[in-house]
């Protein structure tokens, strides 16, 4: 084992400890580069515009969420979400199509309650951006896009770029992002959620009844809404 | 040196390196979740928790690869050992403070139901890995390593 070939010993080799340190520093640099890309990657809202339900209650009313859909629907879905909550992104990916359809065909109205606790820096920023988009009638599309590219940092520049691609990125929108226009509204939504006993995200109520975690599937959502419609008619 | 020691070191290298590599790889593509897992420990301030969550997976992958290849084993194992000590301390601290979180070691993380914590398993696993790291610090020479004898850096591979 102890190979002490004098010829090889004479070669000056970089000590392995130094190499290890260099590799670890390179790994950290890769991490920094990845982080930079997250904050500077291109925003692509896609070519196909999504069907956007009509706005019933816009953002800004203290303690009230953003409601979309057709007024008079028999089922009402309350969705408490955080735009930086990984489980919400999974939930959105899994059940988004089902919920969108229920809202589009007038079976249910959907209220977004954007909370801001998961990431103290980004969550309030994204909730504010969502509110600004909702005020311009793009609540569902904007939420879907943010969840759809969840690993993106969603810097303010990226948020504004997304709004531009959706045709709502005017000066007023940019001002809302830079000035955190809906910050106090987001706070009021958080207080309303606390008052209702919502402790985590995603939390879903259908006609006032909270769904269990195992019901947060396309089938579970469909069934809860069907039951609510039956009970209401 | 005992003839079986290099074989034990080989197994230690592959197990410790494999776990580190997998743990890093599972987290590296989901920085938001990784950062949230670090925040859930409520040890670091938010400004520091995020970069730790983002950087940790890259370091784990690098250490894992170095161990599996068998290069600079003694130093890499020392680094892995430091990681394990930090992980054990963090999980123990979360446990002692009555937090109910997942360690987020292999992705995921964040709050769980109080009945679903696995602190003891997490700590025992990390203690086991720490033992492997300590072994490698004292017996870095192993079979099938890029570097057969870390004390004399010959550049030869093991016979």
How does this model look, in words?
The complex is a heterodimer of chains A (233) and B (159). By secondary structure, chain A is of the alpha+beta class. Chain A contains nine helices and six strands, in the order ααβββαβαααααββα. Chain A has helices spanning 6-10, 16-40, 86-104, 122-135, 139-148, 156-165, 171-178, 183-195, 218-232; strands at 55-57, 66-68, 75-82, 108-115, 203-206, 209-210. Chain A has a six-stranded mixed beta sheet with strand order 1-2-4-3-5-6, with helices on both faces. The mean pLDDT of chain A is 90. Chain B has 159 residues and is an all-alpha fold. Chain B has helices spanning 5-28, 31-39, 46-69, 73-96, 119-138, and strands at residues 101-102, 110-111. A two-stranded antiparallel ribbon of chain B has the order 1-2. In chain B, strand 1 and strand 2 form a beta hairpin. In chain B, helix 1 runs antiparallel to helix 3, helix 1 (5-28) crosses helix 5 and helix 2 crosses helix 3 (46-69). The radius of gyration of chain B is 17 Å and the shape is elongated. Chains A and B meet through helix 2 of A and helix 2, helix 3, helix 4 and strand 2 of B.
Radius of gyration from the alpha-carbon trace of chain B, in angstroms: 17 Å
Q: Using CB atoms under 8 Å apart, which protein chain pair has the greatest interface?
A: A-B, 36 and 45 residues
The structural class of chain B is mainly alpha
Q: Give the quaternary arrangement of the chains.
A: heterodimer
Q: Which CATH class of chain A?
A: Alpha Beta
Strand order of the largest sheet of chain B: 1-2
């Amino acid at each position: 084992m102890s190979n002490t070939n004098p010829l090889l010993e004479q070669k000056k080799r970089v000590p392995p400890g130094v190499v290890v340190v260099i590799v670890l520093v390179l790994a950290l640099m890769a991490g920094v580069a990845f982080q930079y890309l997250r904050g500077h990657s291109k925003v692509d809202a896609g070519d196909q515009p999504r069907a956007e339900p009509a706005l019933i209650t816009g953002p800004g009313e203290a303690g009230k969420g953003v409601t979309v859909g057709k007024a008079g629907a028999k089922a009402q879905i309350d969705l408490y979400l955080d735009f930086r909550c990984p489980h919400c992104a999974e939930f959105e990916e899994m059940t988004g199509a089902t919920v969108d359809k229920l809202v589009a065909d007038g079976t249910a109205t959907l209220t977004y309650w954007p909370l801001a606790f998961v990431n103290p820096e980004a969550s309030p920023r994204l909730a504010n951006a969502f509110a600004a988009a909702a005020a311009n009638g793009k609540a569902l599309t904007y939420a879907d896009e943010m969840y759809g590219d969840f690993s993106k940092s969603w810097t303010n520049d990226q948020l504004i770029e997304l709004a531009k691609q959706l045709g709502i990125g005017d000066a007023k929108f940019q001002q809302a992002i830079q000035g955190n226009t809906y910050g106090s509204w987001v706070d009021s939504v958080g207080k309303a959620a606390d008052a209702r006993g919502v402790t985590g995200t995603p939390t879903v109520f259908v006609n006032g009844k909270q769904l269990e975690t195992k019901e947060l599937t396309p089938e579970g959502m469909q069934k809860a809404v069907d039951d609510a419609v039956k009970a209401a008619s | 040196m005992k003839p079986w020691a290099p074989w034990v070191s080989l197994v230690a290298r592959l197990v410790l390196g494999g776990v580190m590599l997998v743990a890093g790889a599972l987290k590296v593509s989901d920085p938001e979740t990784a950062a949230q897992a670090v925040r859930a420990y409520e040890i670091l301030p938010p400004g520091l928790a995020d970069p730790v969550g983002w950087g940790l997976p890259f370091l784990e992958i690098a250490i894992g690869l170095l161990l599996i290849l068998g290069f600079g084993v003694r130093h890499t194992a020392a680094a892995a050992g430091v990681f394990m000590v930090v992980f054990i301390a963090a999980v123990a601290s979360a446990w002692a403070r009555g937090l109910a979180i997942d360690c987020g070691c292999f992705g995921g993380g964040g709050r769980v139901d109080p009945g679903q914590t696995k602190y003891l398993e997490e700590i025992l696993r990390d203690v086991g890995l720490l033992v492997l790291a300590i072994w490698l610090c004292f017996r870095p020479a192993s079979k099938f390593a890029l570097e057969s004898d870390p004390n004399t850096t010959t550049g030869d591979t093991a016979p």
